[in-house]
Amino acid sequence: MALSRTSLQMSSEAANSPEEKSMMSKIFEIYTKTANAATTLFPLWTVLFTAIALKRPSTFDFFTTEYFTAALAALMLSMGITLTPADFIAVASEPSSVLMQFSLCYGMMPLLAMALGKAFGLDAGLMAGMVLVGSINGGQASNLCTYIAKGNVALSVLMTTATTVGAILMTPFLCKALLGAVVPVDAKGIAMSTIQVVLAPIAIGMTANKFFPKLVKAILPFAPVVGVVSTCLLVASAVAQVADPIMNAGIGLQIPVLLLHLLGGLVGYWLPKITGFGEVKSRTMAIETSMKSSAFGFLLAKLHFGDYVARVPSAVSVVWMALTGSMLAVVWRYIPVKEDEK
Questions:
Q1: In angstroms, rounded to a whole number, what is the distance separating the alpha carbons of residues 67 and 226?
Q2: How distant is the alpha carbon of residue 116 from its chain centre?
Q3: CA nearest 177: which of 115, 133, 139, 132?
Q4: What are phi and psi of 83, to 5 degrees?
Q5: Distance, CA of 229 to CA of 182 (rounded, Å)
Q6: pLDDT, tens digit, 9 for 90 and up, residues 68-94
């Protein structure tokens, strides 16, 4: 019996030996470097998944609505564990950032969409779809891109929530004002989806961060990978559902949709910057403004616009929104923020 206990003790000591700990450290270091490289290549994964979805849409048939919702929740949970209630309290104490981004989302972007539509001579159906893309809320993928860009994730989450809830009133109002079209929006549905897919996973993540810090510390290095995989699947699934309209859209539509997201991001950065907001907040607002909830726009166009082509700009937007946001995130990830500019 004594011999058995001695053997167990020796085995336990061997398992916790410096050599084994060193090996585990090396494996974890390799994983960290690989994960950082994979996160840096986020735009490449987005292009790859998009290409597969366009070439073989059936590849993502397995990704049903249930999986789509679960992936969104996983994305938000992976962001939630990086946050604390103090982060939101700090952001809420300065609402000017949220108000600025809200005005960019529902003021500048719809007007930019209309201007680009007119500049490229889009017909009435495509113009309606273009304005709809500019008039919808920010997408949840912006929270991941903000995290990658080392922006203010708590601020990004609040902005996404504000524009998503705001879509209940703003999207129908803008469509009526700019297009004369009546776009009914399911207010209760939007509110419930925001709670289930955005706020609840964030709250669970923050709770885990507060009460189980050791567990969160252990899984935190995996959060960016979960976020990237979730986002790529979400983009691919959305693209696969509208592959034909995207492939049939000519360059005359691809360019204005790309410019909507690109110029939206640039204005979303420089306008806050020149009006006194810090670098981190300006980057966060740029990503949030550039990345629209294009899949939601496609759904609205499908349900409420009589002309089929009105849904095509939203379908094209799914691709360019993801690419623009991920590229901004990766570029800013490697441009350090000076202490006096935060």
A1: 14
A2: 24
A3: 132
A4: -115, 160
A5: 37
A6: 778 777 877 877 887 888 887 877 787
Strand partners, 138: 292
Cα torsion at 39, 44, 45, 48 (round to 10°)? -170
Do 259 and 116 meet the contact criterion of CB atoms below 8 Å apart? yes
Q: Tens digits of per-residue pLDDT, 248-292? A: 878 899 999 999 999 999 999 999 999 999 999 999 999 999 999
Using CA atoms, how far apart are residues 101 and 279, in angstroms rounded to an integer? 14
Q: How many helices (H) and strands (E) does the chain have?
A: 19, 0
Using CA atoms, how far residue 26 sits from 13, 14, 32, in Å, is 20, 18, 10
Nearest by Cα to 159 from 198, 211, 201: 198
Q: Which of 32, 62, 279, 251 is nearest to 152 (CA)?
A: 279
Place of tokens 């009526």: 176
Neighbours of 60 (CB within 10 A): 22
Instruction: Report CA Rg, the chain.
Output: 22
Based on the number of CB atoms within 10 Å of its own CB, is 70 exposed (0-12), middle (13-18) or buried (19 or more)?
middle
Question: Encoding tokens for residue 175?
Answer: 């469509």
Contact 289, 265 (CB under 8 A): yes
**pTM for this structure?**
0.77
**Six-digit token pair at 158?**
């609040």
Is residue 299 scored above 80 in pLDDT? no
Going by the DSSP 8-state scheme, the letter that residue 138 receives in this structure is B
